[in-house]
Amino acid sequence: MFNKRIKIRQLLAEEPNRQGVTVMGWVRSFRNNQFIALNDGSTNTNLQVVTTLGKFEDSLLKRITTSASLKVTGTIIPSPGKGQKMELIADNIEILGDSDAEKYPLQPKKHSLEFLREIAHLRFRTNTFGAVFRVRHSLAFAIHQFFNDRGFVYLHTPVITASDAEGAGEMFRVTTLPPDNPPRTAEGAIDYKEDFFGRATNLTVSGQLEGELGATALGEIYTFGPTFRAENSNTPRHLAEFWMIEPEMAFCDLEDNMNLAEDFIKYIIDYALTHNSEDLAFLAQRLAEEEKQQPLDKRSEMGLLEKLNFVRNNNFERITYTEAIDILLQSTPYKKKKFKFEVKWGIDMQSEHERYLVEKHFKKPVIVTGYPRDIKAFYMRQNDDGKTVAAMDILAPGIGEIVGGSQREERLEKLLQRMEEMHVPADDLWWYLDTRRFGTVPHAGFGLGFERMVQFVTGMSNIRDAIAFPRTPGNAEF
Ligand code: 4AD
Ligand code: MG
Questions:
Q1: Do residues 144 and 241 share a domain?
Q2: Could you tell me if 94 and 137 lie in one domain?
């Protein structure tokens, strides 16, 4: 058996006395031909491996270069040196894979996040991305735990679909038709009847519509899968491929929905604070250093850990869209004409507005309800005022919108009317409408953008650093 190794994270948690220990990992550095800093990805803390002078051939020592992979067997002792609790006195070193240090792109110096994005295949080997991806994993695990504990059913909704759940037309087409010479209809349009599925299909923008089908039978479901948006947004908060968590609950109104979303966010933050304290402490330090480069007024008032604790321990602010607009109209940046985009009732709030509300005005996450119906999707429940819908967005400091959700329109007539007004084809969505025909119930749900959550928890300022291989306009490398 090859894999008789102990992970460094586990080793470091134990008493520093142990014989016959095998570890495997990649060399981070090799100092004085004597001290190897070995990392195996289980933690950012390297294991100090000691190559006692004279014990190993020079030809072997020469091959211990940055990022070479090693199998080391030896004895763990308390470290006499400063900086580490224990060290591994090597008895045997096997080079599993050589690494040409001259050509290795990650030099032992600080690299910019932009540069690391260009070598995303190797950036996992840095402390920053080691921490980010372990935290990302933890958050994913916590999400399943949260819903499982509450009896939600994990529903896998399709990735390929013929419908546009959000009605925003930001879809990637899926087709097997020949691009240079597709079959045409008599009118000259591309004839999707000849296509693989016998109709036009695209990658899903949201699993919500199918989620509603599940919820109106299973009671409470959630999805957690990749979603795709062909919006040409080159921002630090948009991806063309991102992961979304979409719970959907029968017998649930907007307030229940908000309560669940708030509990959910607090739960997963708590999980990360409890299980990833070392990585979060590292990321907090990283962020503090990054912010030192910024002018004082651009720096956050709280450190990363402080912010996470604050969000976990305090209630989110809850306001209506109308109140939000009033606050913006009263604000200093509005009066001083500092907002780039217009402010008036009816606008789709821009990132600058959302950030003013959470970062400057309330200084905490804010749940905004009752948006104008004209800027929201067809499925949202219409309020009695005839102007607004039972929508809720959660805005988070540094991120802006992190959750979008609503109570759904469960009344068939009202839904049909809204679909017609918004040119959503009712014929195509016959299956969706059936839930309103056969035992319709008040129900609600929301979508949390996973990468935005990862950004929030890790303090990474660009969403491209919250997913392993970001897909953005003009970029699908790796
Ligand atoms: O607000 P959105 O578009 O809502 C929906 O898709 C609903 N069907 C959700 C539901 O009610 N079940 O998207 C939900 C969340 C946003 O709040 C945001 O966090 C994230 O998904 N999101 C994106 N994340 C990264 N890149 C993008 N291009 C995103 N678009 C939305
Ligand atoms: Mg939204």
A1: yes
A2: no
* Domain containing residue 161: 124-170+205-465
The CB of 70 under 6 Å from ligand 1? The reply is: no
Angle CA(95)–CA(100)–CA(104) in degrees, nearest 5?
A: 120
CATH number at residue 430: 3.30.930.10
Beta bridge partners of 406: 391, 445
Q: Measure 239 CA to ligand 2 centroid, in angstroms.
A: 14
Question: 193 Cβ partners below 8 Å, 6+ apart?
Answer: 199
Residue 450 Cα to ligand 1 middle (Å)? 9
Residues flanking ion ligand 2, Cβ below 5 Å: 404
Structure tokens at 161: 């679909």
Considering only CA atoms, which residue is closest to atom 5 of ligand 1?
447
DSSP letter (8 states) at residue 401: E
First-to-final CA distance of the chain = 32
Nearest to 226 by CA among 210, 243, 205: 243
Ligand 1 atom, smallest distance to 402 CA: 19
Counting ligand 1 atoms within 8 A of each CB, the residue from 452, 457, 462 with the most, and so the one to mutate, is 452
Ligand 1 pocket residue status of 403, Cβ below 6 Å: yes
Does the beta carbon of 282 lie inside 6 Å of ligand 1?
no
Query: What are the pLDDT tens digits along the chain (478 aa)?
Result: 888 999 999 999 999 999 999 999 999 999 999 999 999 999 999 999 999 999 999 999 999 999 999 999 999 999 998 889 999 999 999 999 999 999 999 988 889 999 999 999 999 999 999 999 999 999 999 999 999 999 999 999 999 999 988 888 899 999 999 999 999 999 999 999 999 999 999 999 999 999 999 999 999 999 999 999 999 889 999 999 999 999 999 999 999 999 999 999 999 999 999 999 999 999 999 999 999 998 888 888 899 999 999 999 999 999 999 999 999 999 999 999 999 999 999 999 999 999 999 999 999 999 999 999 999 999 999 999 999 999 999 999 999 999 999 999 999 999 999 999 999 999 999 999 999 999 999 999 999 999 999 999 999 999 999 999 999 999 999 9
Crossing angle of helices 127-149 and 277-292, in 10° steps, is: 130
Ligand 1 contact, 436 CB (< 6 A): no
